[in-house]
């Protein structure tokens, strides 16, 4: 009934009546996302009628009402099939100021029309394959970049930027060709990076360092939304950028990484928005070539170094709270480097672990990022080692029992999700410089067996990557307890009585044969398969392993 009345007025009424009826329709269906199939034809005709009205010279307020209803109707994919034409797309492009190459955004009264037009385009492009093809034909990505350049330094038109960026994200998500066009032809990487700089109001103190005001106000909701959309679009643009081929690429990625470092050190209007902002920053950092991630840490200035050295001495003995604050800040400094961004990433990772769900989507990106940073940058690895795997003192509990970051990561090493299990184990392995003996000290053999089997390191040794040769130092507590630590569980156990000490030799032989027969039965019924280690450290059926060792022995005898 609503569609019939609205359609009648749209076809025959004047602008004022059209605006009123469409405003009523919009207010009533603002939260409608599922539509009755019985009224499908009426909605199609209403869409066609609205496009015809938009061709006329009508007031801005009437245009906004038309576009609001069109946005609501464009949530229905079936309605879009007959109305998604090149002519209708061009109407929306004109209203969104995407056709005029020289037209500046000076008329504030037109901003609501531009925003609603962009919202309509977002829905239509997302829901219609025909619209996606027309976007390529109309070169929509280039038009969106041109609109961004008009408003990148204009803070009072954040809504326009936000939906322009959202549409750019959708296009680059749905079309791989557009990603390449944005990356190279349209210079999307520097353009989107500049949008982020503008949203964060960055002031550079050095080539890759920005001023951070920890006491400054949080980002506004509009700035946060703009930044999130820009981060998502940048992710698509850089999704294949694993290697840097030119010096200019390296510089641009370092600038982007420096902007992302700034992003990690600021907060949004709410805790949820801050987490969403940081989550998208983590995803984008995963696309940055690892050689460019060194800008996440930066040397302390002379002033910061002097302040760090003198602040504790200057504080009176009764200023306990102030001293604790100074000590807390000093934990973000390692070897003269500011580690704030890495500390934020570590806290972000721990929060994602504590959530206890969606590990593959929410946790693996930050774990993978920290792993690659640790593998490539020594200072980052050593800082994370101090934070995650500090020197062992209390070994009375199993490595997976407790509330420390180490305990939480060790628990993930036996997670049911293979991807989560592998990346958690890999992170700890890299922090241990890919040395098996060091990893087992912190995790126990049982928790590490999966990683070691996959890497062919069950017999010990180390991984393929080279690390510095500085040695780990064990605490006195660990050295004293080491002889009594169970290597499988990784913790100190009280000596257990040997159950066979009180058996006679005949009883021992009987129990041994009983065990042999049970294993033989399980093997013959293929419920259990005896395995052995090959010379390269990987697992294989026992017979095959024995055969390989026999061949090695024969070869050695022939050589002798």
UniProtKB/TrEMBL annotation:
Its main location: cytoplasm. The keyword Zinc-finger does not apply. InterPro entries: ARM-like, ARM-type_fold, Chaperone_Ric-8_A/B, Gua_nucleotide_exch_fac_Ric8. One of its GO terms (molecular function) is guanyl-nucleotide exchange factor activity. GO terms for cellular component: cell cortex; centrosome; cytoplasm; cytosol; plasma membrane. GO terms for biological process: G protein-coupled receptor signaling pathway; sensory perception of smell. Keywords: Chaperone, Cytoplasm, Guanine-nucleotide releasing factor. Pfam families: Ric8. The keyword Chaperone applies. It is found in: Cytoplasm, Cell cortex. Interacts with some GDP-bound G alpha proteins. Does not interact with G-alpha proteins when they are in complex with subunits beta and gamma. Belongs to the synembryn family. Chaperone that specifically binds and folds nascent G alpha proteins prior to G protein heterotrimer formation. Also acts as a guanine nucleotide exchange factor (GEF) for G alpha proteins by stimulating exchange of bound GDP for free GTP. This is Synembryn. The gene is RIC8B.
């Amino acid at each position: 009934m609503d569609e019939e009345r609205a359609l009648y007025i749209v076809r025959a009424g004047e602008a004022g009546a059209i605006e009123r009826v469409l405003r009523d329709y919009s207010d009533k269906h603002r939260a409608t996302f599922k539509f009755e199939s019985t009224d499908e034809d009426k909605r199609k005709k209403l869409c066609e009628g609205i496009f015809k009205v938009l061709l006329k010279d009508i007031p801005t307020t009437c245009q906004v009402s038309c576009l609001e209803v069109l946005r609501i109707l464009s949530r229905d994919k079936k309605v879009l099939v007959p109305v998604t034409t090149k002519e209708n797309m061009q109407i929306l492009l004109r209203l969104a100021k995407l056709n005029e190459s020289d037209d500046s955004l000076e008329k504030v009264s037109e901003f609501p029309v531009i925003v609603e037009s962009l919202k309509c385009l977002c829905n239509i492009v997302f829901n219609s394959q025909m619209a996606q093809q027309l976007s390529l034909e109309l070169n929509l990505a280039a038009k969106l970049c041109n609109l961004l350049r008009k408003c990148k330094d204009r803070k009072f038109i954040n809504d326009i930027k936000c939906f322009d960026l959202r549409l750019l994200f959708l296009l680059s998500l749905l079309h791989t060709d557009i990603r390449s066009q944005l990356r190279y032809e349209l210079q999307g990487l520097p353009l989107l990076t500049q949008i982020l700089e503008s949203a964060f109001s960055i002031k550079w103190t050095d080539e890759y360092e920005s001023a951070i005001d920890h006491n400054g106000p949080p980002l506004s909701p509009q700035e946060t939304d703009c930044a999130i959309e820009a981060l998502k679009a940048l992710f698509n643009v850089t999704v294949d950028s694993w290697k840097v081929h030119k010096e200019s690429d390296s510089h641009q990625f370092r600038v982007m990484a420096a902007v992302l470092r700034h992003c990690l050190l600021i907060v949004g209007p709410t805790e949820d928005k801050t987490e969403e902002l940081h989550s998208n920053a983590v995803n984008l950092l995963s696309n940055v070539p690892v050689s460019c991630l060194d800008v996440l840490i930066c040397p302390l200035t002379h002033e910061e170094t002097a302040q760090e050295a003198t602040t504790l001495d200057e504080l009176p003995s009764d200023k306990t709270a102030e001293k604790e604050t100074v000590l807390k800040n000093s934990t973000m400094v390692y070897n003269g480097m500011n580690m704030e961004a890495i500390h934020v990433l570590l806290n972000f990772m721990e929060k994602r672990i504590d959530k206890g769900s969606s590990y593959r989507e929410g946790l693996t990106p930050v774990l993978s990022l920290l792993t690659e940073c640790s593998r490539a940058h020594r200072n980052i690895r050593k800082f994370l080692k101090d934070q995650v795997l500090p020197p062992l003192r209390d070994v009375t509990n199993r490595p997976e029992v407790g509330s420390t970051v180490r305990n939480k990561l060790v628990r993930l090493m036996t997670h049911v999700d293979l991807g989560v299990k592998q990346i958690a184990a890999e992170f700890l392995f890299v922090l241990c410089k890919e040395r098996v003996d060091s990893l087992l000290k912190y995790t126990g053999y049982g928790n590490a067996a999966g990683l070691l089997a996959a890497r062919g390191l069950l017999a010990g040794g180390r991984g393929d990557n080279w690390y510095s040769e500085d040695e780990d130092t064990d605490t006195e507590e660990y050295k004293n307890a080491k002889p009594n630590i169970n290597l499988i569980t990784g913790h100190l156990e009280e000596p257990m009585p040997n159950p066979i000490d009180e058996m006679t030799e005949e009883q021992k032989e009987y129990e041994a044969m009983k065990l042999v027969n049970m294993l033989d039965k399980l093997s013959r019924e293929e419920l259990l398969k005896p395995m052995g280690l090959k010379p390269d450290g990987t697992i294989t059926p026992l017979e095959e392993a024995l055969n390989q060792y026999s061949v090695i022995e024969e070869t050695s005898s022939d050589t002798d």
